[in-house]
Amino acid sequence: MYFRSTKSNEAPVSFKEAVLHCLPLDGGLYVPASVMDMRQYFLYMDTETTYPELAATVTPSLLQGELNPFSAARVAESAFDFEPELRRLDERFSLLTLYNGPTGTFKDFGIAFLAAVMEELLKNNGPAMIISATRGDTGVSIANAFRNRQNITAVILYPSGAIQGLDPAAYVPNGGNIIPIQVEGSFDECQWMVNEIIRDRPYADRYGITSANAINAGRLLPQSFYFLYAFIKIKKYLNGDLLFSVPSGNFGNLIAGLYAWKFGMPVNGFIAAMNANNAFGDFIKGQQFMPHPVKTTNSPALDVGHPSNYERLASFYEEAPAVMRNMVFPAAIDNDETLKALELFWKRYGIILDPHAAVAYEAAQRVSSAFDPDSHVVIIATGHPAKEAATVRQAIGQTIDLPQRLAMLREKADPLAVIKPNLDALEAAIASCF
Ligand SMILES: *Cc1c(COP(=O)(O)O)cnc(C)c1O
Fold this sequence. Notes:
By secondary structure, the protein is an alpha/beta fold. The protein has 18 helices and 15 strands. Helix 4 crosses helix 5.
């Protein structure tokens, strides 16, 4: 499968090129250039299939000629020592839990795969460096996934504020491969620096620089795997339409679901579950996209005003407007509705959701009532409820303890350098580590 820029159908590139260079020079983002029918691989998988097995089967067929089955099995084994979990709740709903990874959000899945596949792709290549901007836990996920990966250094940029959850033993001067840098500026400035440095090809080529942010296609592709995983676990119970309800902020998950459909997964719709930041809702219904100022809500990971994945969604829209209009159902859920849904779900199923999953549950109830009674919705639980304990307590009056692995995310760490938000300072800080 080749990848192309969202801004052009010309000059498709290999997966390796898309992963190691991250951004096409025309200002777009990489997306799969061709449709693959993967049904022959996953229609015969069943509830016995493990997640690494699924990944090890699907990856080499998607990336024929680039990753052989042995390499793919190595990647899947070394990436995933955690798995998604699908629980069928009743006739109407299932819950797909994606917070079993080291930092308690679905982002661990894409990052873990990217790190493992990069190490494999670099086996006969020079070294590479990933540069990523993060506000917090994603940095820990990146540091975990890339730690001790052969031939790869990971530079992580943080905006002003505390850095948490990193192990100094993994830093470059201590013999590791992680370089945390604090930028005296905002997250947007960190992200700007990442984009600039990747597009400065002579500099980027000197170090082999790419990004582990969601703009990297190597993070997007493996996110389609857990939609397939949910499907193989639930298919024998299905009698009618299948929908997924996806808590959506930057829309990476939703786009990955659309790709799973493109790969042949039989699915009838995706619910784009948003909070008050619902600028994409109008866009999905066919209006021009207007970024809105960000509103603060009780489902903070969905508080995104100007999603970087707009490019990918718009490109999908252009390709298949009918799919977008007839298969993607936007719903906006406010703070009160989120709390009520969290409480209702707990009373009904005895399971504590986080507020992002509660948004998805409420949206699922709303949208699926228009479908036939046999339809089934998989609700995607993107984050661990203990990470939003205050909101959970507000909704159900219960306190949940942070599991040990997540408590470690809250330990303070020092950066290796503190710099002004400009490229000269960043390049000097990187150079001083070698
Ligand atoms: C990042 C995140 C989201 C948003 O996912 P997108 O792919 O950006 O739409 C939702 N929930 C949680 C817990 C997250 O961390």
